[in-house]
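Re-run with default settings, no changes from the original entry. Doing this only to confirm the output is reproducible before filing.
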Amino acid sequence: MEGVLGVRMMGGGFGGCTINIVREEAIERVMDELGQGYGRRFGLVPEFYVCEASQGASILKPSK
């Protein structure tokens, strides 16, 4: 799908989800297309959580 850079399925044995890396300009279109396809196939409405990558974990130095 145009705008999708990568996808990984997680927890498929328990309902599961996918983690999708999507170009910012394609987020709305990708959610619409995936939502419609999922709804047709399974008769359910998927949930989407849009987040942004950050620097991640780091070591904190104790204050004196």
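Residues 4-42 form one domain. The chain is about 25% helix and 20% strand.
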